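Annotated sample (chain length 192).
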Amino acid sequence: EELPTDASPPLGNHVRFTHFVDANLYHCMLTGRSVTGILHLVNQTPFDWYSKKQAVPESATYGSEFVASRTCVDQALDIRITFRYLGVPIRIVSYMFGDNQSVVDSSAHPHAKLHKRHHALSFHRVRHCIAAGVIHYVHTPGKLNPADILSKHWTYNNVWLFIKSLLFWQGDTATLILDQTNNTKSNRQRTS
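Output written by the structure step:
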């Protein structure tokens, strides 16, 4: 990750970025293209979202999920550099959650074998950021992935729990990291 040399010095509390990514294979019945859905959170607060058809139709979920992951990584790096230029201190690693276990696993292993050459660019972009320690890619079950709202057709009743938990978060999101650190320290003291 390129760090800006001409940015203002960071001030204030550190922020943590969380990204949820999903793809819906064969979303468009006319063209056969998939849809990418990405939700970006800053300290558990929705910051940005992205929902768009992919440029190339894919024949398997693996390819469309990797294209979505690469799009999410590109956007995450852009958000990180924007916050750095604004003088906001950020955590070293950003967390990215996806619901395709094979994409998460193969992007974590540097010697993963690819069967299609056009997936290589997406694979190497995601793999590079994971190896550099900028992104930590974690699997989450599809039922718990809020990016599903952006990539699939839903009714209000099916997505209200996701929307409610995102919009009506209770507590100060800037103190989440401090609360977790204090809880860890108090647990260590109890066990000692």
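Annotation: The chain is about 40% helix and 20% strand.
Annotation: The CA atoms of residues 86 and 169 lie 25 Å apart.
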